[in-house]
Amino acid sequence: MRPIGFVRSSYTETAQIPKGLGAQHDAEGTLDILPEVEEGLTDIEGFSHLLVIWVFDRVAGYDLRATPSTDTRPHGVFATRSPRRPNPIGLTVVQLLRRDGPRLHVRGIDMLDGTPILDIKPYLSSMPAKRLKREWLAEAEARTAGEHA
Ligand SMILES: C[S@@+](CC[C@H](N)C(=O)[O-])C[C@H]1O[C@@H](n2cnc3c(N)ncnc32)[C@H](O)[C@@H]1O
């Protein structure tokens, strides 16, 4: 695989990116797509949200258990969104604000500046919210809400 483009964001260090329960990801940035694949953006303007598949290019190695910033307990890496994964692939849903040729202006960035993008797909949500289960995360949210009550 090779990058189809790169993220441009204001984040130069991981510490600048909001983390933990209730973190809001409303940072704006751009997805700068390489000229040789720009034609692949044809008709993308019609979608409000996109799935961005990208590389955690600034991690080395992985852990099969991770304690996310959203919880105090460890979980299997595939039950988390930890950057330290056997294949360091990230997935972010962003809102498409506008397109300027090969540049997509988006909101919802949680990637460092310069992050390589592997793919972009339209976000087509088909799962009703009431059918979604998110066990450990829901428990962590309930515990935190209890602590702050
Ligand atoms: C918890 S991960 C979630 C990323 C994505 N939404 C996902 O679910 O795959 C987000 C964190 O990845 C880290 N990160 C962002 N860009 C990175 C990069 N290019 N290389 C390594 N780590 C990165 C930052 O610490 C950021 O807070």
The average pLDDT is: 95
- Percent of residues in helical segments? under 10%
Q: H/E order of the elements?
A: EEEEEEEEH
Identify low-pLDDT runs.
Answer: none
Query: Main sheet: which strands, in order across?
Result: 1-2-7-6-3-8
Number of strands: 8
Main β sheet profile:
6 strands, antiparallel, barrel
The count of helical stretches stands at 1
Would you tell me the structural class of the helices and strands? mainly beta
What general outline do the C-alpha atoms trace?
globular
Strand proportion: 25-35%
N-C termini distance: 48 Å
Gyration radius (Cα, Å) is: 17 Å
Report the bound ligands by name, code or SMILES.
Answer: S-adenosylmethionine
Q: Would you write up a description of this structure?
A:
The protein is mainly beta. The protein has one helix spanning 135-148, and strands spanning 5-8, 28-33, 49-55, 65-66, 75-76, 89-100, 103-107, 116-122. The strands form 2 sheets. Strands 1-2-7-6-3-8 form a 6-stranded antiparallel barrel. Strands 4-5 form a two-stranded antiparallel ribbon. A hairpin with an 8-residue loop joins strand 4 and strand 5 (75-76). It is globular. The termini are far apart. The model has no long low-confidence stretch (mean pLDDT 95).
